[in-house]
Design brief:
- The structure is a homodimer.
- By secondary structure, the first copy, chain A, is of the alpha+beta class.
- In chain A, 34% of the residues lie in helices and 26% in strands.
- In chain A, helix 2 links the parallel strand 3 and strand 4.
- In chain A, helix 1 crosses helix 2 and helix 7 crosses helix 9.
- Chain A is globular, with a radius of gyration of 22 Å.
- Chains A and B meet through helix 2, helix 8, helix 9, strand 13 and helix 11 of A and helix 2, helix 8, helix 9, strand 13 and helix 11 of B.
Chain lengths: 394, 394
């Protein structure tokens, strides 16, 4: 379909892994070998598909396909889980006439549950037959779990040699605090790239986007982001300008999709944009940004539209960062409420409450006069999160 | 009143700091000088009363009184906040015929709001007049905020020389992740103790109790725990056996009250008892216990009675602790569901769901065969937490 880069086809099928009446098995195939870049969760309990994809990445080989399921995450499932994962690789490769290690498996859903292999096998013929019938949205829908909407984006980039296309498809709503990658994300391009350059560009773009968002601070066992470049456009980055254009486009599209992830944080109603500046270095700024973005009290106050800025300052204070309290200032929705360690503009409360009704809430924290800064996006915390997660499996 | 140790009197008054119709200013006075032990928040934004109490502790002087208010925390209030705090010390001391630095001020409530000094001054005569009219519960009620019930306990200890009494009064429902102390807690005893021994015993007891509980992971700006020993019983710890008896009693009573704190975590319906063993050392075990106790996904699942044990294992995996995934086991409510990195006892799901209905939920995590262990108590996360915190100030 025409929102995928050249040479890629997508398909999906209903395997009834958890519920009937929806696609829950998706497939992407490139008609030629792809250069692979990828990043994975830092959770020590790496899901079976994470381990398999890491092996493929380490081998340096080119790949052809991604097969994705929702329903069972195939994490914490031991040897049986790993065997099941390899079996899905083998069966997919057989049906497509590929080698098993040209197929990248990704899974999402309940941690600790085994893949329903009978369902998987039964759905495979329909999945392969569906190739070419789904667009980016169709593939994305197949690996949604509690996502309220599919998250994907497409972008064209003009390089010296012509146009190339980037398409990114992601899922994620809960257990989201990516650490080197998000829940599941597949980025496709028909540009021609070198393996090392692609991986380096990919890592920088992910660190600037997916690794700076959080819904609930829970880093999943399955976080995987794959980048497949198949050169079907015949267009390569020929010079530094081209490389910058491609990386900028990749960063921009990953930023767009990672924003969707936060906006659809389970039950989230708002995106909190946290910017920390004036820190001794970027690491100190990051500590502060993450502490504020993970604070349950900050997230519930912003959900409720309560201008309780003292909770933000409190989270700055226990972040573990080193700073002088008397040099700290806070600007909330453009209104300075705390300057050099003292409350200011108390008469702006009503105006601030008004501005807090917006979907996007800006939190700017100035720690001092140092060069360090960091930005981070977090979702708020509301009743819908509790409802969704209190009984997710039933 | 007879649930306070000898020589202590308590009083309370209505100052209308936030709402009318309740006591919100409390006072404790000892009829003789007290040896002081204390621990305070590690939050860099220390509230004005925290800074004042720290000065008094550092001076090594004996103290006579504690004055506590709810409504405004007097934190992040700069120079004006500090001046207000010292003024409350001065006025209280004047009314009681004491030195200002014999009066320990503690505050709780909204961070960033100034103390309502006019209300404070107006309420002082009634407060002083009320001395002797309140028991431990009466004082505790005066510094409650969102607490659903007052948290206090009394205990008698038999030493070689006779009976001594311990009374502990605490408040705390949200912004609870004590780091070296809880939100606000006052422990009184009429035992005779040496300053260094009392402080050492106190620190060990707090580290074993209050520093091992969490409601929401937010460490407040005001956490303060004070221990006042006035020797009114005339009974001293005369030997190692006495010292152990006194410390054991102190630890037990602080454990009782810190358990109340978690049970009354804002909107909490359950207490999660996390025990980690088999770690390389206690620090690694602590990382795991805190990671599980702070996981929003674990807390919401347990709120909902969902035996979604994969979320617990996931939180173990991203804790930052170092261990071998294939050596990890998990026992939930007495049922082993994960052994050496693999799911077991899947047929016990229904029984497990039944056991999860209890108010107290046991989570036992065995990381390997090392000597390190740690225990931690956390509350669950439900709709009531969101409701209470989404619009706390209005």
């Amino acid at each position: 379909m025409d929102d995928l880069p050249k040479g890629f086809r997508a398909g999906a099928a209903e395997a009834c892994f958890r519920k009937a009446g929806r696609d829950d098995l998706g497939l992407i195939v490139s008609d030629r070998p792809c250069v692979l870049a990828a990043m994975f969760t830092k959770n020590l309990f790496r899901a079976a598909p994470v381990r398999v994809c890491q092996e493929i990445l380490a081998s340096g080989r080119e790949v052809r396909a991604v097969v994705a399921n929702s329903g069972q995450a195939n994490a914490c499932t031991g040897d049986e889980g790993l065997a099941n994962c390899r079996e899905t690789q083998r069966l997919t490769a057989e049906a497509l006439g590929l080698e098993p290690d040209e197929v990248l498996p990704v899974s999402t859903g309940v941690v600790g549950a085994h893949l329903k292999m009978d369902n998987w096998r039964k759905a495979l013929p329909a999945l392969v037959q569906s190739l070419g019938s789904r667009d980016a949205e169709g593939f994305t829908r197949a690996f949604m779990t509690t996502d309220a909407f599919p998250k994907f984006a497409m972008r064209e980039v003009s390089l010296t040699g012509g146009l190339v296309r980037l398409t990114v498809m992601a899922k994620g709503a809960g257990m989201i605090c990516p650490n080197m990658a998000t829940m599941l994300c597949v980025a496709l391009t028909d540009a021609c790239v070198e393996r090392e350059a692609w991986q380096a560009m990919f890592r920088r773009a992910v660190n600037a986007t997916f690794n700076r968002v959080s819904v609930d601070g829970d880093t999943s066992t399955n976080d995987t982001i794959l980048g497949l470049a198949n050169c079907a456009s015949g267009v390569a980055a020929m010079n530094a300008g081209d490389e910058k254009a491609l990386e900028d486009a990749l960063t921009a599209i990953l930023d767009t999709v990672s924003h969707m992830l936060v906006a659809d944080g389970e039950g989230a109603s708002k995106v909190i944009h946290i910017k920390v500046s004036g820190a001794a270095d970027d690491e100190e700024a990051e500590l502060v940004a993450r502490s504020v973005g993970h604070s349950q009290l900050v997230k519930t106050a912003i959900y409720g539209g309560d201008a309780n800025w003292g909770r933000i300052v409190t989270a700055v204070g226990y972040s573990g960062a080193d700073f002088k309290p008397e040099e700290v200032s806070l600007v909330l929705c453009g209104i300075e409420r705390f300057r050099n360690g003292q409350p200011v503009n108390e008469e702006m409360e009503a105006e601030l409450a008004e501005r807090l009704k917006a979907k996007d809430v800006d939190v700017d924290i100035i720690l001092g006069s140092g060069p360090g800064s960091y930005s981070f996006k977090a979702s708020d915390l509301g009743h819908e999160y509790v409802s969704l997660n209190a009984d997710y499996r039933s």
